[in-house]
Amino acid sequence: MSKIAYVNGRYLPQSEASVNIEDRGYQFGDGIYEVVHLHDGRYVDEDLHLARLERSLREIALPMPMSRAALSMVLREVAQRNRVREGLLYMQVTRGVSRRDHAFPSKPVPPALVVTIRRVPAYPTDVDKWQAACITLPDLRWARRDIKSVNLLPNCLARQTAREQGAIEAILFDEKTGMVTEGAATTFWIVDENGAIRTRFLDQVILPGCTRAALMAELRTLGIAYDEREFSVEDVRKAREAFITSATSFVKPITKIDGLPVGDGKVGPVVRRLFEIFARHVKGDVKNAA
């Protein structure tokens, strides 16, 4: 069956779908995107993702292409037309089609909306097989990383460098301070040398991860303490455990960074439990996670 995409009001086979060459997303990266995990026919943390989409759009003065309720219907229709119950949905909103000029169109044009979905394996069941390695790299991205912009060239370069070194992610840090920001496409966490679960506080330097927020909500429900406090690359070297979170990584243990083991180089007890907690969250069964 052909993959079906939603493109500006039409459901089309992806092989026939196209956007105008003067779409500002294509020419300027003038747009916002979101990625949402579909589990057993249910979009995980849909409200968090749509709220973040709305916020990012406001930050660049770009209106929603339709109401949230209408957009939710489009997301479900795309999944249904593709007969996908376990997948990753991608949606992108750009400022639309206009004669090439850096400034916004003098006469507003309709925002452009594209939605696609692809099948992915279900949430992993074996945390030990889910572990991975990372590298560290200087953070070269723009100053407003809290906006989920389609401008991802520095992220792509970082991910490619990680791949070339046999890792799945690049953990980025501020060259001036040595403080860790986040992963190229993930939130980065450590269990520090004192046993505290830590990740960086939110500001304009990092993206407000939806999986980050969802995991924090479950930790609060279960009475598990965590600390939103920045840490350095040196702190990472001393950490007992480390992990990343995202809509595609869920809770992924990181057992090697820059070729060196994190802690004893195995999946630790804290991350093991967080993995199980988030698995229940994905399945809508966190009440049994205690």
Automatic annotation (TrEMBL):
The keyword Magnesium does not apply. Coiled coil: none annotated. This is D-amino-acid transaminase. Keywords: Aminotransferase, Transferase. Belongs to the class-IV pyridoxal-phosphate-dependent aminotransferase family. PANTHER family: AMINO-ACID AMINOTRANSFERASE, D-ALANINE AMINOTRANSFERASE. It holds the Pfam family Aminotran_4. It is an enzyme of class 2 (transferase). Its EC number is 2.6.1.21. One of its GO terms (molecular function) is D-alanine-2-oxoglutarate aminotransferase activity. The keyword Lipid metabolism does not apply.
